[in-house]
Amino acid sequence: MNILIFQKRFKNYHAVQKNEDGFFEKKSAERKEDFISGRIALDRCLKKYAKERLIRMEVDILCKQREKPRLVFSGKTKNSQHGKIDFNISHSHGNSICFLCEKRMAGADLEKIRFFNNNLINGFLNEREKKLVNRKKRIRKKQITIFWSLKEAYLKAIGVGLKRNPREIGIYKLYSKKYLIKDGTVFVKSRIESGIFLKKFVWVTIKIQ
Amino acid sequence: MESDQFEKMAKDLIFRITKIVPEKISLDDKIEDLCLDSIQIFELIMEFEKHIEKKLKYEDICTIETVGDIINKMKEEK
Questions:
Q1: How far apart, in Å, do the first and last CA atoms of chain A sit?
Q2: Which residue of B has its CA nearest to A93?
Q3: CB under 8 Å to A157, separation ≥6 — which residues?
Q4: Chain A residues in contact with B61 (beta carbon < 8 A)
Q5: Chain A touched by B42 (CB under 8 Å)
Q6: How far apart are CA A58 and CA A149, in angstroms?
Q7: Which chain A residue is nearest to residue B26, measuring alpha carbons?
Q8: Cα distance from A92 to chain B (closest Cα, Å)?
């Protein structure tokens, strides 16, 4: 089962203060919005999952430094056999998406469609990928953002994020909206979905088989 | 080169990418909190690599979380 939740910017975040050992308090105003929006999205995801599976869930989020956050069952559901659940949150300008899936590694990325300068493009796209991108300005911006999101979602799914250079990950386009990912010399068996949110953001989710 | 100069260089670098004025940046600030999104973080890494004239490895990037870490890395490389 896969669940994807979109959460719009939560403007009145002052009403929803959360202090997790000062983690929240130290963040900038923009990051607080991102954080709240991301947590609301995750909460909605988990509630939907529990409803679909007809179970009662008690979960905590385990955040170890330099590791991908993961869900840990607690309380009465501690020894549950519901299966492993992986999730990933991405936020951009206060909006967020949360992607949750069972028994597979999950990655998600949400990015505002924007202009990329040549330096940045050369930093994360190889020559083959640059040729795949349309030359028309409006389409080009969207496509480059999608390429970025595909690589970022994959790197988040495997738990390394930007510590690895996105250039090491290859994107192959089969046809419209159908992509393949290559890590080094290996094609990654994965299910990729993508789309546009609020007409301004690109979203990508990846489930690694 | 003195510590203040490294701090100024690091804050100027961050300002170029994030447009956050150096006066508002402290050494404890996390890079991911200063940057709007992952693309800005990547831009910052690229600018930093250009500045120290060296490609950062996975192990190096793992150690850079705060502004203070950037300054320490600059001191190491210079």
A1: 13
A2: B36
A3: A88, A105, A106, A107, A190, A206, A207, A208
A4: 162-163
A5: yes
A6: 31
A7: A26
A8: 6
Task: Decide if B46 and A123 are in contact by the 8 Å CB cutoff.
Answer: yes
Helices A137-157 and B38-52: crossing angle in degrees, nearest 10, is: 90
Question: Is B21 within 8 Å of chain A by CB?
Answer: no
Query: What's the pLDDT tens digit per position in A176-186?
Result: 778 999 998 99
Cα angle B35, B9, B47 (rounded to 5 degrees) comes to 50
Q: Do the chains contact at A28 and B43, CB–CB below 8 Å?
A: no
Q: What is the pLDDT of residues A144-178, one digit of tens each?
A: 999 999 999 999 999 888 888 888 899 998 877 78
3-class SS of residue A170? strand
How many of the other CB atoms lie within 10 Å of CB of A60? Answer: 11
At A131, the pLDDT band (50, 70, 90 cuts) reads: confident
Task: Give the tens place of pLDDT for each residue, A69-107.
Answer: 887 776 666 555 555 788 999 988 888 899 998 888 999
pTM for the predicted model, two decimal places: 0.84
Q: What residues have CB less than 8 Å from A1, skipping those under 6 apart?
A: A49, A52, A53, A101, A102
All residues of chain A having their beta carbon less than 8 Å from the beta carbon of residue B30 are 26
Q: Do B62 and A28 touch (CB under 8 A)?
A: no
Q: Give the distance from residue B56's alpha carbon to the nearest chain A alpha carbon, in angstroms.
A: 9
* Residues B17-32, mean pLDDT to the nearest whole number: 85
